[in-house]
Amino acid sequence: MDLTSFGCLLWALLVGLHCLASGAPGKRMHRYSGQCEDSGAPPPQEEDEQPSPFTQVTVSVDAQPGMLTRDLVYCLARAAGALRTNGLPVSTDGCHYHGDYGYTGVAVPQYSVHWRVHARLCTDQQDFFPDKDGPSLPSWLEMAGRLSQGSLARHIYVILQGTPRTSCDTLAWFLTEAADAIAAGASEGSNFDEHCCGYAFLVIRPASF
Fold first, then answer.
1. What's the whole-model pTM score?
2. Half-sphere exposure of 54 toward its Cβ, with a 13 Å CA cutoff?
């Protein structure tokens, strides 16, 4: 199994665990090259309207083992740019964005790094950070990390969460802060407030490293 196939498998696992944790169905709507199929801006909310409790985002980066950390961090920056450019999701199906970096193909297009973003609304009040006593990784993110052990590729998983008042710029800033920590050498970490707004990340290094 090549990097692309294995990375897609891990991404499907992460999104599946994400949906399982939030009680949402596993239906997916694909949006390619940073294009969101939802047309226009979300309708304005009345003051007495009950908004969706959380905006949740999962980000993954899959890379060949020889790629530098700075290359993976660059892809996280591109993912943050996709969040800023395309705005917030307007449904539980959400939006999908993805991209590639490090062209290595000759006869056929091949890339050394692939990144993916899934942004969705969570309407069942299940948040990413059940342990509110302090920074910790959600159990389903830790499980995804354990299942990724032994991979010959490099993987980064980042989750972001905000309330209906959280802007896309703030979510992108969460991702940038996680990327800065990864660039500084952190292999895992989290930062969220009493409203469960924030991020968590996990870095999986190749088995041979």
1. 0.76
2. 21
